[in-house]
Amino acid sequence: MAEQKNTAAFDVLDQALVLDPGYAEAWNRRATLNFTTGAWGKSLADIEQTLAREPRHWGALMGLAMILERTGRKDKALETYLRVLAVYPALKSAQDAAGRLSEELVGPAI
Length: 110
Fold this sequence. Notes:
The chain is mainly α. The protein has two domains: 1-46, no CATH class; 56-110, no CATH class. The protein is built from six helices and no strands. The longest helix is centred in the last third of the chain and has 15 residues, at 92-106. The chain is elongated, with a radius of gyration of 15 Å.
């Protein structure tokens, strides 16, 4: 994935999932690869599989929140960023996104 050899990366991840369909991180990596290649529907399906195996997977939750935000479902995105922060309170990108969306949806704090 780091070398952007997407076809090879998909092949490796697909084989990993054939060998161990319960391996949450393989689902998450494939979700990330699908996200980066613009296949958001496939990414969502893989995120769903990741979260079914590991509901507190903050990386999968971040991916879900970003897709929700980019597709205009900002209220659901905010809820999901807050779920990320419940798992990983120090994650700056989730803090920033939650703050930005909260201000956008609710208005600035007084």
